[in-house]
């Protein structure tokens, strides 16, 4: 979708249009105040506007570049240009430089610099960018320019080229060019290219067909800040320089608002108008949306910061309860959080994930459920992981990872959620780990689809990367992390096989551990037992349903259980109190890949000797457990909470469960 050209001074908007049936290209002139159609000019094509010098440029392809009076649509002159080898109606638009009165027109791999007053072609700039090997097809000619943007304040021209094409994948490269100095400044990779330039900055959004998108802030013609794995498609960002904000369409019916200096997500709000965001006018302070060829207008002031709202009461879905966490003061507040699957696939939200779903909260032990929404991206809030603060009874803090939108934090039990992703490279978080002493040290760890292990020491306000792993598959903290600073992580260093690593100083230094089995990448479960500094006990489970135990901190491993449950596997471990004959519970859940609704099979095991030997527990034919949590008062009440395949929460006496022979 071509961006709207807004002439704030004249109160007009110019946009490419077509006659009914799409037979003839036209130029639509609309009111900047209310979006009404004012005029329809007879010529059409990619547009460029020089409001200062009173010129509207329309690229007519083989017919050349038309220069129009923007107020009347009269053609002032037509400038002859070479024919384009591949001409597209949505091809690179001419870019005007109001300060010099020049205009840049693109043909093939060249930029033609034209004097807008006389129509004289002053010179051309050639770009010799060669393609990558597309589907194995040899092609060594210079690539044509596929798109263009111009920042008149810094006089930087941005050009994009299709450097790779093999259905369904398309790869782009963006080149920035300093027009005043006559030199290239930088290059960056991109996919379908949407951008807005202004205020000396360039904001780029690109999209990968079978996954998430990337947002990049360019400074001085070079990529500076980037984050990836966003959902919502290749929506163009638009700059609000006065508020220092950037606006972008997010998931269906939602908008994202970013900080213009850092591209930190500030908030996610319902869109103030239907349709695709297509422009912003600083003079009228209005946002423009296109819906089925109609322009809609909404004040940017409507995008106010979210306020706390009571969670919405909902019926618990009938599908499996996938994750369960209890308040540390459960005996007093009866609060629990859980993840249930959505009733319907969320493909219209561009969410691609085999795990996660809708996060619900209950304050009566799972009898009734509420859906926290304020500040989250609506029906597309697909939560892949969450964590309650160990001090939840006092601080009411919850973290939720929303796939394709990053990490959110609530400090009022879910009444209001605010983004907590500043500095995170991936917006699809796979795991959230909080220090047992979070209330005091404010330490948290997360990792996403890319970007390694990230640590925050300020409660999620900022994040920094720790460790050498480029991709993290799994991580676990010591239950006494606040004292011993120990954590383990499994993943891939750059250009190397998967490794299991341990840090004993909160992530500063790492050392390798032995692999429980040859294929470490197939470990879906990893857990450090209580009193780890003393006993050095840890567990790992593989996708074949085999459980391994180490009693020396991961130097050596012994197989202690062959469960008969195979992957894709969910692994949950819970530890009872006491160091002598410590009870340990293990829940293994297998889900059919791609099945909807999910159809899990599971087995629950119990150990009475710290995980050295295991017995399967008989729950009866009506209880298929899919999630597990121990009562915070387990030492007194012995209760084990189980989420089931039918969406219920049941409690059993963990130490009295009958074992299968």
How would you sum up this structure, described in words?
With 661 residues, the chain is mainly β. Among the domains are: 77-300, YVTN repeat-like/Quinoprotein amine dehydrogenase (Methylamine Dehydrogenase, Chain H, 7 Propeller); 311-420, no CATH class. Helix content is 4%, strand content 45%. The protein contains 6 helices and 55 strands. The strands form 15 sheets. Strands 1-2-3-4 form a 4-stranded antiparallel β-sheet, with no helix packed on it. It has a 4-stranded antiparallel β-sheet with strand order 5-6-7-8, with no helix packed on it. Strands 9-10-11-12 form a 4-stranded antiparallel β-sheet, with no helix packed on it.
Q: Regarding quaternary structure, how should these chains be classified?
A: single chain
Q: Which percent band covers the strand fraction?
A: over 45%
State the end-to-end distance.
65 Å
Spatial ordering of strands, largest sheet: 1-2-3-4
CATH architecture assignment name of the domain at 77-300: 7 Propeller
Low-confidence stretches: 593-597
Number of helices: 6
């Amino acid at each position: 979708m071509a961006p709207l050209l807004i002439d704030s001074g004249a109160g007009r908007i110019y946009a490419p249009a077509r006659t009914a049936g799409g037979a003839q290209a036209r130029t639509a002139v609309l009111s900047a105040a209310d979006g009404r159609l004012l005029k329809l000019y007879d010529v059409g094509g990619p547009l460029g506007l020089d409001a200062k010098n009173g010129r509207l440029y329309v690229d007519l392809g083989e017919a050349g570049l038309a220069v129009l009076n923007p107020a009347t649509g009269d053609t002032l002159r037509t400038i002859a240009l070479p024919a384009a080898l591949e001409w597209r109606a949505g091809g690179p638009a001419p870019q005007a430089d109001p300060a010099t009165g020049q205009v840049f027109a693109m043909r093939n791999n060249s930029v033609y610099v034209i004097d807008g007053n006389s129509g004289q072609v002053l010179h051309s700039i050639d770009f010799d960018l060669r393609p990558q090997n597309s589907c194995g097809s040899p092609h060594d000619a210079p690539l044509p320019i596929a798109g263009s943007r111009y920042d008149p304040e810094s006089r930087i021209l941005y050009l994009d080229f299709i450097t790779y094409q093999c259905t369904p994948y398309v790869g782009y490269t963006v080149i920035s060019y300093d027009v005043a100095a006559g030199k290239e400044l930088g290059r960056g990779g991109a996919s379908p290219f949407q951008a807005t330039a202004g205020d000396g900055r360039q904001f780029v959004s690109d999209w990968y067909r079978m996954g998430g998108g990337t947002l990049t802030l360019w400074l001085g013609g070079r990529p500076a800040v980037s984050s990836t794995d966003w959902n919502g498609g290749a929506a163009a960002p638009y700059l609000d320089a006065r508020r220092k904000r950037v606006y972008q369409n997010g998931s269906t019916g939602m908008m994202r608002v970013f900080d213009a200096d850092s591209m930190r997500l500030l908030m996610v709000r319902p869109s103030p108008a239907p349709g695709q965001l297509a422009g912003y006018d600083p003079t009228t302070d209005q946002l423009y949306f296109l819906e089925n060829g109609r322009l809609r207008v909404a004040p940017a002031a409507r995008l106010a910061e979210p306020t706390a709202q009571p969670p919405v009461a909902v019926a618990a879905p009938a599908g499996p309860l996938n994750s369960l966490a209890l308040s540390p003061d459960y005996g007093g507040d009866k609060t629990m959080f859980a993840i249930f699957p959505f009733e319907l696939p969320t493909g219209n939200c561009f969410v691609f994930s085999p795990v996660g779903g809708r996060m619900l909260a209950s304050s009566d032990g799972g009898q009734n459920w509420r859906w926290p929404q304020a500040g989250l991206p609506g029906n597309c809030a697909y939560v892949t992981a969450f964590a309650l603060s160990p001090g939840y009874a006092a601080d009411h803090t919850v973290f939720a990872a929303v796939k394709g939108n990053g990490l959110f934090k609530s400090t009022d039990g879910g009444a209001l959620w605010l983004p907590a992703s500043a500095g995170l490279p991936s917006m699809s978080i796979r795991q959230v780990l909080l220090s047992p002493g979070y209330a005091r040290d404010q330490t948290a760890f997360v990792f996403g689809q890319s970007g390694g292990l990230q640590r925050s020491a300020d409660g999620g306000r900022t994040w920094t990367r720790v460790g050498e792993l480029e991709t993290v598959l799994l991580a676990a903290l010591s239950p006494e992390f606040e004292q011993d600073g120990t954590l383990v992580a499994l993943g891939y260093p750059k250009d190397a096989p998967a490794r299991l690593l341990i840090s004993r100083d909160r992530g500063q230094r790492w050392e390798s551990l032995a692999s429980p089995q040859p294929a470490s990448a197939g470990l879906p479960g990893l857990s450090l037992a209580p009193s780890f500094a003393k006993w050095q006990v840890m567990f790992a489970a593989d996708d074949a349903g085999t459980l391994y135990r180490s009693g020396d901190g991961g130097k050596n491993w012994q197989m202690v259980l062959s469960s008969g449950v195979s992957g894709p596997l969910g692994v949950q471990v819970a530890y009872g109190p006491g160091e002598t004959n410590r009870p340990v519970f293990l829940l293994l859940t297998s889900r059919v890949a791609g099945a909807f609704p999910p159809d899990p099979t599971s087995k629950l095991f119990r150990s009475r000797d710290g995980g050295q030997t295991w017995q399967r527990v008989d729950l009866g034919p009506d209880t298929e457990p899919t999630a597990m949590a121990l009562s915070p008062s387990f030492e007194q009440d012995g209760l084990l909470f189980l989420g089931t395949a039918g969406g219920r929460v049941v409690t059993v006496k963990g130490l009295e469960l009958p074992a299968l022979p």
